[in-house]
Write a structure and sequence with these properties.
Elements lengths: L1 E5 L2 E5 L9 H10 L2 E7 L6 H12 L3 E7 L8 H12 L3 E3 L1 E3 L8 E4 L4 E6 L2 E5 L3 H19 L3 H10 L4 H13 L4 E5 L8 H10 L12 E3 L5 E2 L10 E10 L2 E10 L2 E2 L3 E4 L4 E4 L3 E5 L2 E5 L1 E2 L4 E5 L9 E3 L5 E3 L9 E7 L5 H14 L4 E5 L4 E6 L2 H15 L3 E4 L6 E4 L3 E9 L6 E11 L6 E5 L11 H14 L10 E9 L7 H17 L3 E15 L3 H10 L3 E8 L2 E9 L6 H8 L5 E11 L2 H19 L1
Parallel strand pairs: 3-4, 4-10, 5-10, 31-32
Antiparallel strand pairs: 1-2, 6-7, 7-8, 8-9, 11-12, 11-23, 13-14, 13-22, 14-21, 15-20, 16-17, 18-19, 18-21, 24-26, 24-27, 25-26, 28-33, 29-30, 30-32, 33-35, 33-36, 34-35
Helix pairs in contact: 1-2, 4-6, 8-9, 10-11
């Protein structure tokens, strides 16, 4: 988080990584901003991260400005970058500048808004007339800019057609409207490390670009209802502020927030409707990297940082206690990698759980929790680097180290045919005995239909009061699994006969009879394992498509189709979860970091026989270890 004063305008800057592992930070930053300044490397052009940043800006209806940086590099290809941006994001993307001498030694830019040549010496700019050999290209480009401004508004386009030109004020008006409506995406150039082009960019942002008063603000709702409340960017309005980033420090959490309406003042009490708790506002800072500058108040449209809020986390709203409003938090990207973690030191399990929960509150794109079915702590993130950062933080902040292991797969068991079995539970060891007998019939159901229990006992062979105990025994056996210890699904179970004893029968006896009868019948019903199948969409450049498809086939994946999107291909496939472990790392390695993907659960389907045997053997091994 940075800020500066540029010619009377305060400019807040949120600098976020373009790397896919930290895409959650990029999404929240775009959400909290007015303008998505999207950087494109002059040597590599449009990349996967460029597309994601543009998508976030589109999702939140934010203005987008492209900046081609590193124009001073040896192999800088600005023409290629311009073309790639326009090919990928449409003709609405228009260059506002011409890099005169791109490559090593770059120091001249033609600015078509000023129609001047800007020459930089040691970072200082000097304007002069455009050389004659560049005049035609500059005029053509200026015409595109003016047309883009005119097309943003019906009155302006009519005036442009009538007069063939717009005034400077009309151009400024059209540029702002076009960026607000996302019908215009200006492209600038720079060599930022040498301070070349940065001043022109800041001039444009402060004069022409839309600010908080121009752009739509998120919808607020009255607490606990769906009644919308119209907000205005006004310090005197009801407070509506959102914490978009939390950084945990030794002295307490540092909470970055955007104030959409009202103002927030040091020393006042506010309300957090997400956590239903009051907060006392302590110190407020304006941040520039690690440097903090005290602020007394954060007004509407501004950004600030609060320290030591007791129970406020990323995505939470802060409002007045007597005007309770809530802004819907954003939906974070779904995790792409899952691992299991174990404590390196015995007894640290509670510390691990508490630490991972705290880190999730800071960074909701990271998810963790104990999976009772798998008997593992499962940690999920956007990639291996993301998880590495999380585990480093767990060690430095909470003092616990973890071992990372491959997570178990949530298999399911089911049957393919009908079967019948009975079990008589009889036990006599002095005093009152135990007796219960149940006859069960099993039948397979359609995938996804779940469990059904039927009572077809006639003649009172099992008294009605014991039928629920039989069902309970069946349900418990299904939860434990029979084949490999995984839950059993999509099965119809019918109890149709049995016997009882007037004295020795009990709920416990019939529960055991139902459990063992079910296990016996299950073995005879051609049992199989089911595995989770995920829908995977892989985005890759054309040159890597063959390698990626071959890799998916090697993971037992089935290619469902392909769609072209700009200069990349989207490969749709269905892949078993068991074969997606650390796929994000493999894909990035295979595609030199240019590949990306999303995944979502689709359905369960039978596991191949050879894989089934391996799963059963592994399950038996795990069971032996637990018993030992």
């Amino acid at each position: 988080m940075l800020h500066c004063d540029w010619k009377g305008s305060k400019v807040n800057i949120l600098d976020v990584p373009g790397y896919a592992d930290f895409i959650g930070d990029a999404k929240t930053a775009v959400w909290a901003s007015d303008i998505a300044l999207t950087l494109v490397n002059a040597t590599s052009g449009v990349e996967i991260g460029t597309d994601k940043a543009f998508g976030f800006a589109s999702e939140f209806n934010r203005a987008t400005v492209f900046l081609i940086n590193h124009v001073d590099r040896e192999f800088a290809d600005c023409d290629g970058a311009f073309s790639a941006i326009q090919e990928h994001f449409g003709s609405e993307a228009i260059p506002f500048q011409i890099p005169v001498n791109a490559g090593e030694g770059f120091n001249q830019i033609i600015d078509v808004l000023q129609m001047k040549l800007i020459t930089y010496t040691d970072g200082k700019a000097e304007a002069s007339d455009i050389p004659e050999e560049w005049q035609d290209q500059a005029e053509n480009l200026r015409e595109q800019v003016v047309e883009g401004a005119a097309e943003s508004d019906d009155d302006l386009i009519e005036r442009y057609f009538e007069e063939g030109e717009l005034t400077d004020e009309e151009i400024a008006q059209g540029l702002k409207i076009g960026m607000v409506n996302r019908t215009l995406f200006p492209i600038f150039v720079s060599a930022a490390s040498k301070n070349i082009g940065v001043d022109l960019l800041l001039d444009f942002l402060s004069i022409f670009a839309p600010g908080p008063l121009d752009l739509p603000i998120p919808t607020a709702f009255k607490e606990g209802s769906e009644e919308e409340v119209a907000l205005a960017v006004n310090d005197d309005g009801p407070l509506a502020a959102v914490v978009f980033k939390t950084i945990s420090e030794s002295v307490g959490d540092l909470s970055f927030l955007r104030v959409y309406s009202g103002s927030i003042t040091s020393g006042e009490d506010v309300f957090n409707p997400n956590r239903r708790t009051n907060e006392r506002i302590g110190q407020i800072y304006s941040m520039s990297g690690g440097k903090r500058v005290d602020m007394d108040v954060v007004g509407a449209g501004d950004i600030g940082a609060l320290i030591k809020l007791k129970d406020t986390h990323t995505g939470n709203t802060l409002c007045n206690r007597n005007a309770r409003l809530q802004i819907q938090p954003i939906e974070f990207p779904h995790p792409l990698i899952r691992v299991a973690v174990t404590a390196r030191s015995r007894g640290d399990e509670d510390k691990i759980s508490a630490g991972l929960h705290s880190i999730h509150e800071e960074d909701p794109s990271f998810v963790a929790g104990y999976d009772a079915e798998l008997r593992q702590i499962i940690a999920q993130g956007q990639g291996e680097l993301h998880l590495t950062v999380v585990f480093d933080k767990l060690k430095s902040k909470f003092g616990v180290e973890v071992e990372v292991v491959e997570p178990r797969i949530p298999y399911r068991e089911t049957i393919q045919s009908r079967s019948e079995a009975q079990y008589r539970h009889r036990k006599q060891s002095g005093g009152r005995g135990q007796y219960g007998e149940a006859y069960l019939r099993l039948a397979p159901k359609q995938r996804g239909d779940g469990f059904e229990f039927l009572d077809e006992v006639v003649g009172g062979s099992i008294p009605g009061k014991y039928i629920p105990a039989v069902e309970k025994g069946v349900v418990e056996a299904m939860q434990r699994g029979v084949l490999a210890g995984y839950p059993i699904v999509d099965t119809q179970v019918t109890v149709y006969d049995g016997s009882f004893h007037q004295v020795d029968s009990s709920d416990m006896a019939f529960k055991l009879a139902g459990s063992f009868a079910f296990q016996n019948a299950f073995i005879d019903a051609k049992p199989i394992l089911l595995e989770p199948i995920y829908k995977v969409s892989v985005v890759v450049p054309d040159s890597y498509m063959g390698d990626v498809m071959a890799d998916l086939n090697g993971r037992r994946g089935r290619i469902q189709g392909m769609d072209p999107e700009g200069n990349v291909q989207v490969i749709h496939a269905e892949v078993p979860l068991a074969d997606l472990y650390k796929y994000s790392t493999s894909l990035r390695s295979m595609t030199q970091g240019t590949g990306d993907y999303t995944m979502a659960f689709s359905h369960y389907e039978p596991v191949p026989h050879d894989v089934t045997q391996k799963v059963i053997e592994a399950s038996e091994h795990d069971r032996e270890l637990v018993e030992a």
